[in-house]
Structures are given as structure tokens and as C-alpha cells.
């Protein structure tokens, strides 16, 4: 179904619920608590009033429930850790390894901490699951709207980079359906530099509560 149709009649409550589900589904699936939480996440998905988004996310959860845990971990790592175009780090897409990425990370950390959010000790503040969790629990604001515009651009690129059969493609399709309602994503790197991101040392993501 077209993304525009998926986003139709998406209430603010639906958006926040979807962001939390998406944050969970994009977190690393290797933790026992992640696996144990899947049935509850399925319930959340069924409660999303927009049927296209709710049913799509519920189908992803159902697929994960019936996938061997080790296979799911392997799929996650192969999907997001070995391809720069599918990396789950916002500023890696925006700046690559240019020197402008550092200030952008500092600014994101400032925004998160203003609202009581902190990334895990071994994580970066531009990790997409953390940013979606942030959007799920904070009120609409100009800062949030700007973050959504940035996410729209990056999530669109990630969806296009995912193979058609990837279990994560529907997750990004839902994200992009919602983000598409925020207006065009026009990120401009002021320096014009965007070096290829070196993601070899980035840690596995965590489930944020």
C-alpha cells in the first residue's frame, strides 16, 4: 500500500505508539528481555488505530516471533552493521566521517538530555532506536519537527537500500509513511563534506525503555 495511504488518519497517539514499536523492532534482538517483550509489542501494534500501520507492524512482530533467535540476530547484524547505507546512525548518513559529525552528535546529546534522555555508555546519541523512543515520549515541538525532517531523509534512504524481502523494510515503510506527513526532508550539510562512515567499531544497539 502506498505510504501516503498508510499515513492517512494517523493520530498523534498512533504516531507515538508507532514510534515506540519501531524503536523496539530496530533494537538489537539478541537480548533475552527483547525476545520476552515481543508478545507485548504485538499487543501494542494491534492497538494502533491506523489499520495499515498497525497491521504492518504486527505482521513484523509475528514474523520475528516465528524466526529462530540466532537467525534473527544474524539477519540484524548483516542488515545494519555491514552496509553504510543501512546504518542505524542518523549523523553517519548526514556527515559520514567528516569533522562536522562531532558537533552534530553533541547537539543531539544536548537535545536528548534536556528531556531526561541519555544514551547507554557504549552507544551514540544518533542511534535511530533511541531517537524514535525520544519522539514517542516527548511532546511536539520545533526541535522534534526538525528531528523528524532529518529522520525522513535518512529513513527514506535506508528503506531504499533494504532488499525487498528484508523483514526490516516494512518497519521503515511505516516510519516513512508517518514521517512523510512532516514535510520535505531537506538536510543541508553546511561544510559540503560527507566522508564515508567507518562503522566497524560501533556497538550493537540496545532496547531502550
From TrEMBL:
Coiled coil spans: none
Keyword GTP-binding listed: no
Pfam families found in the cross-reference section: Nitrate_red_del (PF02613)
Keywords: Nitrate assimilation
Tree of life domain: Bacteria
PANTHER family cross-referenced by the UniProt entry: NITRATE REDUCTASE MOLYBDENUM COFACTOR ASSEMBLY CHAPERONE, NITRATE REDUCTASE MOLYBDENUM COFACTOR ASSEMBLY CHAPERONE NARJ
Full protein name: Nitrate reductase molybdenum cofactor assembly chaperone
